[in-house]
């Protein structure tokens, strides 16, 4: 699921329309969230999250005089009631007060356990002063995010002989003593999946509370549901939504009840929908205790509330957090991601949904290596219904609804609405089954049918590969493939067509196919590619997951305590529940060890969404989780706080990186992940990894399946480790003559001890002809700079300057948009816009448009949307940038000749309007006389290095310049580096 406010989007390749209704999570597979034709940034708040430099209590290791360490030891639950913790928390609160009081701000939240900082409403003047206040390391505007099991324990092997449940004393005790916190839409406390019969006292060290509220008393909490809180202050500043929900931890939506029951719901709970039994269900860790942290409301989840929930969960003493909530810009330094970094330090394992914006590339959420990011795939059980036509043809699809005898059939397209959401003619559909088209807002379409008098629905997908999903429809319904829908459409055009629907029923078979909606890698963080880290990490069941529901769910037929829905929201709690089992089995394991075990023991027998092409690591990371194997992985890849700090520094994000001394310096490929990814292999690269033996002493030998086009050598080829010992190894990658440049290639390396342990790591390598910095920067009217590039081929090597060119500037005034919304599908219909139109000549290597905060007249949030104007004035969105300030940038490489139209949107101006200056550059394909570029060599060798010198002269002070250095083999361009100079 996707955060509505995202970071830079450099090039928007495709647009999806996401029409949802109801609360933060629509019923069933949640729709992809941004940026789409018809959807831009929405919702504004004057609340900011202010992060301070000291470590939060859950991660504090000492260093401040008079305050000893408060971080829990491995295997120990964080105890916020410990005297040392309370003293340190009081110190943090005093720092919050000191900083807030210095500008006269009133705090909405204090964050103390998983994040050190506070949330507060800030004026322009207060914000400006805080940005220069000592101890403040980050200020982030509050934004909105969105929320994204009966057979799955068997499918995952939990109940097999010797399986993980058996190792924990059986299903009746699996997860005992472990606490799962779920940050979501709340929980339905009366649900049988959370009944407390047979549960003893709450685990020792639990310090949570049961917060009273609307239709919720402290008696709603039990020895199973041991804690409940709700967080709404941040969302309240976005306007609307709160009045439509329970002002308590009670779940009006059903999403939180579903995810919680999947992770830790009771065993052997009878599940029925529409009065029809579908057998029994169980959570992954049925004896775990659960705690609900409601931070999502109709319309979304404010990050300030989410961080409050995460902070509270860590302080309360949870062992595991499930986070089925989205993040459209997987920025490692977003407040919730930083909170999870420190939560891992506090010993909390976090599973997070990968997102539902697949199957396109680089759509994955939650890029931090301290999170276990989970994709979604099918299991071997489906709920199936058959639509039988009057001509005898029959078509199968997904359904949990009752059946319907032969009934007249009508095509919604001829009855007023192909999609059936609105506009159906009652005269045409009353008493009939209606054929409708759509893959999202599915239950809403059946409501449209019901409201028009229809009695049934056949819903066919918008695309053939879209998942078939089983929603709690308002009328008997079946969801079928696009091709089948088109066949039924043709039949519906004949005389007196009819159809009958069988009731949805369990069917076993198939499975192990990636869901089309599951977001994919490679990982991209804002405008920065971070392809040296593989995401998602794993996949787990996420389609037609039968689990709990709220009888008051916003979308779908009311009164149902169960639902069978889909999304990475559903796969994430499977992994969270398995994490709880691993914590139960190995209480001294740290979260990084648990994540490593899940990844290195994963299987790869999974297909892409077409059901026939083998999935690859960008689909499923290391593969599909195998809980029983994860329980005994042999080796793990440990990663501590300094490793994560080093990773952040390797991305160029920080120097101290939440420490008191500079973070260690590593190459991005050397972060100790259980996977090895080389985004740019120019000839030769070596990566280093360290493993720890969590099994008996033994000798492990390596086997390699090299990525095509790449030679791989592992040194040493054998590791002898005692129990608990660590060892390091190096992996050397070298391109060979069969390498295909600029395409990813996949392989693996596996360490085996001959005693049943196989520790597998995916290898993801992208051979390139040249590895060069994306950009370099200089200052001064005249000057020079040097940098190095690495070469991946043999032959001629030539460099050529392009530019420098001065920015073209335009100063305009844009009024504030009172709706705080931009419809990217109809840009001219939006309020608060200014339009800039310009021509781009043929052969232009790069178009850049940019706004700077310092070139607006206040504390403004202005966003940019760039379109190409086609024949007949048709607009095609080619780029968008909508950060939480006016620091916006859009780059379009090789934009193509034509007319372009840029919309500046006054999303949230400081006052009635904002004065801004737009900067625009068209980098030419040749030198213009003010910049030179030279290379230390004219000959490329595989793995060789060239030193590049760029010099400039004659620039005008106070003008921003942009240029480019082009690299070629004498015939074809092989790459380039942007050059910015501010004299």
Write a structural description:
Strands 16, 17, 18, 19, 20, 21, 22 and 23 form an eight-stranded mixed beta sheet that branches. Strands 8-11-7-13-14-15-26 form a seven-stranded parallel beta sheet, sandwiched between helices. Helix content is 15%, strand content 33%. The protein is of the alpha+beta class and 983 residues long. It has six domains: 46-141, Peptidase S8 propeptide/proteinase inhibitor I9 (Alpha-Beta Plaits, 2-Layer Sandwich), CATH 3.30.70.80; 148-379 and 513-636, Peptidase S8/S53 domain (Rossmann fold, 3-Layer(aba) Sandwich); 382-506, Glucose Oxidase, domain 1 (3-Layer(bba) Sandwich); 640-674, no CATH class; 676-768, Sandwich (Immunoglobulin-like), CATH 2.60.40.2310; 771-982, Jelly Rolls (Sandwich), CATH 2.60.120. The longest helix has 19 residues, at 83-101.
Features:
disordered N terminus; globular; Alpha-Beta Plaits; seven-stranded parallel sheet; 983 residues; alpha+beta; 55 strands; 16 helices; 6 domains; Rossmann fold; Glucose Oxidase, domain 1
Q: So how many helices?
A: 16
**Shape-level CATH architecture of the largest domain:** 3-Layer(aba) Sandwich
Distance between the termini: 43 Å
Number of beta-strand segments? 55
Q: What overall form do the CA principal axes indicate?
A: globular
The CATH homologous superfamily of the largest domain? Peptidase S8/S53 domain
Instruction: Identify the CATH class of the largest domain.
Output: Alpha Beta
**How would you state the average pLDDT, rounded?**
92
- Which percent bin holds the helix content? 10-25%
